[in-house]
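Reading a protein record of the kind used here takes only a little practice. These numbers are not coordinates but entries in a learned vocabulary of local backbone shapes. Here is one such record, which you should read through line by line.
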Amino acid sequence: MDNLSSYDPREPQQQQSQWQIPPSYDPREPQQAQWQAQQWQTPPYYMQPQHAPYQGQVPVMAIEPQKSWIATVLLCQFLGTLGVHRFYNGRIISGIFQLLTFGGFGIWVLVDLIMIITGDFKDSYNRPLDQQPVMGGSRDWTTATLLCLFLGWLGIHRFYTGHVLTGILQLLTFGGFGIWVLVDLVMIYTDTFKDDMNMLLTRPVHIRPNAYPYTPQVKD
């Protein structure tokens, strides 16, 4: 405490302010050099690159999400002759051919529709469509869909799902003049059609490997 100088108001203001300046102050040095010497030196900050692979990381190419199954099947059902479902999945060239040939005279569109229902239709990245599985009753979703698509005017899909009375009505009215069958088909597509036990149709998981433009490799 004895080494500290006491404050004396009689001293000049400039002399008093010198006590507040760090001891390393040298009036002979340039002012900019003194300021740089007194600044805190922040530690270097390293930002890891966003896509830099780390040990054990599997490199996967970032591509757009899988296309919706329900959107694809509805586009193929109602606008298939224009190739809209293929444009939606990024298959532009084949979509143009379907547009020019009215869906391959209807045959190509029908093949696409069957492939979409059975889960074999792929997008431009060779990936299956995004369709969630459904755990329902004992009736199979794919079987009911194909029966409604080809034999709906006879009410076969309703006989298959246990709706015998409405199946007879559809048989007598040729599927309600086509309107009733179309409504049933859309309900099956959207997973709202139920069997006689008031349970949804069962659609299992389609196990398929994801397709990538290259084979992922793990670095040791």
